[in-house]
């Protein structure tokens, strides 16, 4: 019998995810380094590098957690601002960037008010991905950029087996020994099931009002990076 958790949806998912991240916050960074074999730091730097924005651009990091991406955004010469629904994560954040507790599906920002959006390993935790992409398009200026990093299922059968052994076998084992919330580290690998396949995910980004949508994979297809440019007219403005 599988120990994989039942994946919640809707309001149940929203409440569970917030509570889960509140609980894992104190040891989150340490376990991230272990689980990713230290590669997550390079993936984040690569994510920020794909923005290609002018120096001083205003970049918001959504589901910012403890602020890793915010620090990389600042190091790249941009002005970072972080948003996260988890009070626990924000309480242990190490970044100097301004942080706001907020549901990132309903951002407290005016239309076209930012130049870039980043998001690291959080797409699968949102209740509604199309709404997330539409909200990103709303707050981005035309020509603004989004770069979103997350887990993925490898297409290669051998890599898929290796990915399953690591993320569905070893990661929960690590979580059970080094985390105060072992259930979270059973949920996190299983939560990739929330994500649509690559082409469908890219279609959601386009439908929200983005152009030049790209997707690249890393670590044998176990990690994906979505990039896109906010079109001159977003989906919500069409026909206005």
What does this molecule look like?
The protein has 240 residues and is α/β, with parallel strands linked by helices. The chain has a single domain, classed as Vaccinia Virus protein VP39 (Rossmann fold). Helices cover 40% and strands 21% of the residues. It is built from 9 helices and 7 strands; from the N terminus they run αααβαβαββαβαααββ. A 7-stranded mixed sheet has the order 3-2-1-4-5-7-6, sandwiched between helices. α7 (157-178) runs antiparallel to α8 (184-190). The longest helix is centred in the C-terminal third of the chain and has 22 residues, at 157-178. The model is unreliable at 234-240 (pLDDT under 50).
CATH 2nd-level architecture: 3-Layer(aba) Sandwich
- Please, how many helices? 9
| Helical fraction | 40-55%
- Low-confidence parts lasting 5 or more residues at pLDDT below 50? 234-240
Overall tally of structural domains: 1
CATH superfamily annotation: Vaccinia Virus protein VP39
The CATH class label is Alpha Beta
- Counting copies of identical and different chains, the oligomeric state is single chain
Structural class by SSE content: alpha/beta
CATH topology: Rossmann fold
Distance from N terminus to C terminus (CA atoms, Å) equals 53 Å
- Compute the number of strand runs: 7
Task: Name the shape in a single word.
Answer: globular
Biggest sheet overview: 7 strands, mixed
Q: What topology, given as strand order, has the largest sheet?
A: 3-2-1-4-5-7-6
- Mean of residue pLDDT values: 90
What is the chain-wise order of helices and strands? Answer: HHHEHEHEEHEHHHEE
Q: What amount of the residues lies in strands? A: 15-25%
